Amino acid sequence: MLAQFVVVTNLLALCQIAHAAPLKVVATTPQIAETVEKIAGSYAEVRTLVAPGIDPHTYKATPSDVTALKQADLILYSGLHLEAQMEKVFESQRKKKSVVAVSQDIAKEKLLPDPELKGHFDPHFWHDVTLWKQAVATTKGVLIKADKANARQYTMNADAYLKTLDRLHTDIEKGLELIPPSARVLVTIHDAFSYFAKQYGFKVENIQGVNTESAASVADVKRVTDFLVTNKIPALFLENATPTRNADAVIEGAKAKGWKVALAGALYADGPGEKGSPAGTYEGMMRANVKTIASALTPKQN
Known about the structure:
Elements: H1 2-20, E1 23-27, H2 30-40, E2 44-48, H3 63-71, E3 74-77, H4 87-94, E4 98-101, H5 129-146, H6 151-176, E5 185-188, H7 194-200, E6 203-206, H8 218-230, E7 235-239, H9 245-256, E8 262-267, H10 282-297
Parallel strand pairs: 1-2, 1-3, 3-4, 5-6, 7-8
């Protein structure tokens, strides 16, 4: 009897150890990885593929990334063709494990079309906080499906994060309220802010399209230059992960036409800044962008 008791006790201990092993999750972008960490806490080990400041549109999986993807219990990616260079890798893993786009549950009528790729949508949905909330809810559901034992904790953590995002959405609206309708124009390097513009009442103009792989032509530079001059737009916004050569050409072109355009600082387009920096989280990125936009476009008091 004693021997049987010891065997049963050991088996229970082994089961507890196995159950306690955290999920191995691979996330493509920092904002997805952060969401997993907020919901799962110590119940997940998260690896991020695309580091802050790296362009997810053009990122290709490295050999070590492929190894991590093979070893993962769960793979989460943004979707909507953002990680275009990794889609074949995702497909190869989908037959073996759960591979989920966090954008999959966003209603199609809330997505914006990609003007360059027929049948595709603009992938930069996280700039609308209300859409990112849906991605958070999807992530929660995927984690619960993978680890039902901790469903209650995942639900509590997700609910707390969603309340944080509600406050963020309200603060963004307040942070932009002093910008008059006539000044609500975002001129950027590539078209990453259409969701932000739609949700928070802006128009957008950009040198490149939605995908940073598309090269800006001389005609694109001229088009944006003429737009800035004609509409007396005072600022052009840089981006943290996009080269500035096209912006420089636009500014020089506007100057030649007698209109001064200021570089209004860098917006975080495809993801947050370095971890630990003020803009190193999703919330921090959004607040930093709002601060930069409001500073550039709010009329200066005499």
